[in-house]
Amino acid sequence: MKPLRADAEPMGQHTLDGDDITALRETYDRLVHDRLPAAARAAGDWPIREDHCFARVVLDAVFEDAWDAHVDGRPAYEHLSATQLRDAIAIARRLLAEGRPLVAARNRDSLRWRDER
Q1: pLDDT per residue over 48-73, tens digit each?
Q2: CA-based nearest residue to 55, from 79, 73, 28
Q3: FRET label pair with 36: which of 19, 27, 55, 97, CA 20 to 30 Å apart?
């Protein structure tokens, strides 16, 4: 087998259905760790601002429960299925689009689900 060149592009991981899970993970990562915190800082009035808080809110919304009751391993997004990643990306994009009212509502949901455990 021929070795990979040092400057070669890494190959993505694909599910059996052909989904490029690497691209899904990168999209999730960018939304939760960069775009949502930046939007929160720019708005100045969102109830959460830190990337780990957005990860909690998004993933709890995916499961409608505390995510760590459903996912073994950290970081959690590396252990999600393609469907779960797509759901998380959709939720994160909706948070970006709708801003403070939805962020506040999903944060309240997340805290409620965690308190009910």
Answers
A1: 999 999 999 999 999 999 999 999 99
A2: 28
A3: 19
Radius of gyration, alpha carbons of the chain: 16
- What is the residue range of 51's domain? 21-115
Q: What gap in Å lies between CA 36 and CA 61, rounded to an integer?
A: 15
Number of compact structural domains in the chain: 1
| Residues whose CB is less than 8 angstroms from the CB of residue 52 and which lie 6 or more positions away in sequence, other chains included | none
In a domain, residue 53? The reply is: yes
The token duo for 23 is 């691209």
**Residues of the chain whose pLDDT is less than 70?**
1-19, 117
Q: Which two tokens stand for residue 50?
A: 């830190």
pLDDT, residue 17, reads 58
| Residue 68 DSSP one-character state | G
Domain membership of residue 84 (yes or no) is yes
